[in-house]
Amino acid sequence: MGKINKDLEKATGKISRRTLLGGVIAAAVLPVQSLFADETQSETLGLTDVVDDPTKIVGPGPSPLGKRSSFEQPVRKPSDISSRTPLQDMHSTITPADLHFERHHAGIPAIDPSKHELLIHGLVDQPMKFTLADIKRFPSVTRTCFIECAGNFRTGKTEMTPQDILGLTSQSEWTGVMLSTIFREVGISNKAKWFLAEGSDAAVMTRTIPVAKAWDDAMIVYAQNGEAMRPEQGYPMRLLLPGFEGNMNIKWLRRIELSEEPYMTREETSKYTYPVKDKIRMFSFELDARSIITFPSYPQKVNKGWMEIRGIAWSGRGKVEKVEVSTDAGKTWQLANLQEPVLSKAHTYFRYLWEWNGNATEILSRVTDETGYLQPTLAQLVAARGVNLGGYHMNPITAWQIDIDGTVLFKPETIK
Amino acid sequence: MNKKTILLLACPILLLLMSLTTAFIPLQGGKPLTDSLKRPARFGFGRPATVREIAVWDIDVRPDGKGLPLGQGDVKKGKLLYALKCAACHGVDGTEKPGVKLLGGALVGDTLANSRPKTIGNYWPYATTLFDYVRRAMPYNFPGSLSNDEVYSITAYLLSANKIIKADVVLDAKNLYKVVMPAKKLFIMDDRKGGPEIK
Lengths: 416, 199
Hints:
The complex is a heterodimer of chains A (about 425) and B (about 200).
Chain A: H1 2-13, H2 17-21, H3 30-33, H4 39-44, E1 77-78, E2 82-84, E3 102-103, E4 117-122, E5 128-131, H5 132-137, E6 141-148, H6 162-166, E7 169-178, H7 179-186, E8 194-199, E9 206-210, H8 211-216, E10 219-224, E11 227-228, E12 238-240, E13 253-259, H9 266-269, E14 274-276, E15 279-282, E16 290-295, E17 305-314, E18 320-326, E19 334-335, E20 337-338, E21 348-356, E22 361-369, H10 378-385, E23 399-402, E24 408-410
Parallel strand pairs in A: 4-13
Antiparallel strand pairs in A: 1-2, 2-3, 4-5, 6-7, 7-10, 8-9, 8-13, 10-11, 10-12, 14-15, 16-17, 17-21, 18-19, 18-22, 20-21, 22-23, 23-24
Chain B: H1 3-24, E1 27-28, E2 31-32, E3 47-48, H2 51-57, E4 72-74, H3 75-85, H4 87-90, H5 120-123, H6 127-137, H7 148-161, E5 170-172, E6 187-189
Antiparallel strand pairs in B: 1-2, 4-5
Helix pairs in contact in B: 3-7, 6-7
């Protein structure tokens, strides 16, 4: 070890990197190479291998691309059709781009950004095509909001994490152009009440969206958390409809057609619709308010005494007004602190300080949004819609059971 | 003081005030920053799309039949195509069999409102959607590969297998949109609107 330290001093002090890489001493001192190793090598010789006392050894130097501490390994949870965000590993509301949930219907298309174009036609003054470069020339806007899949509720067993229950929601800081800016450029006919948005994936995904959303807050975005959007999020450009069900935020956007009538695409008729008593509800765009405690949650363990209950709350209809937490299985509710700034149609972090006396209990959260909507219980949803709920637009209050030994388990409720 | 005098007095004061105000507006490139709020009616970015470019991509079909292409198809041809291109994922006859998981889900079933699984027969509200979706996204392993005639034929077969049209119907742009789907009467537009009511 002494020799390595000596060589490290040399390497960082007197000898230039070029000389080192040139092989003057590198061949003789193998561990030093790891300082400048490529990514694959540093995966294996990661920071977990570090010595007992980090103040006695010079660490790795600068690198072209940063990565997480090897002690931290948050990962998405993929299935055949989607991949879920590890909400229990998040400390605030921005989802790192590589952990943003995924849902696509025929894989992720490989798109050359220099060849990608957006066509806007139908009830417009002048049908136009815009390259990605054209879209980037327009005045840009940055907005932080969540995107949530409309089919985002799993239940059925106690060993479920927030990721398992509702990991199909994530939040990013999106940058792009207001759709209204593009619509003004093209000129929209007064007769146009709807627009079809179409993706450039193998599903050629389509949804119909009311034109009013374009004049309100819809965007065409190309950047996520400050950098170019990820391929699984719609690279090089996607539609962003704050608060609307995820499926409508068409990724890999290639075409918009203005129309008097909705198109009744497969995704807005045979999918993303759900039974309400003896009818089937369609065109449910806004996601109603929802919250979940992400700490403590399964499979964490807690100790008797003080802890901070933490979680996220959001509404597709505007701002979170308040979040209440119950630590006695829903008998009484207390106000949680909301992390400022509270943004509209955005995940909002909440915290509630609690001293656990060690008795078995259940903890829950419920959100009220600025429209006065209070997050319902599963029983209330059943009462409103009937027992055949389907899987869409489910936002029930969810409870965690804390046992006397500190184990935390999800409390699955039965619908029927 | 008469009106004229007031105006005469006011003018120099206003001019002085205006000059003071202008002096306080921060300048950037010789222009007040407020100029950045001015927007042109058109930026002039992008280019007009050609008729051909639109035609190549404009494959959507509306419930009123707008967008249905030339061509036709029948149940018999559709049945053959189904066996060749669809059965691998949707089952030999499109129905769900106990204990067998269909990769692509069932397509044929009871047309009664609450029967399950959800199929074209009991859940799809518009026949035009079937044409639109098959043409744009099917078969899964070779999307967009079917001719318009083939899509008409597969649509005819699936509607016939679900007992929505008779086996001798030839589908085309003139009659497909007129097919009334059993589930259409079940669909209602979203009636949630925020506020205290749980819906």
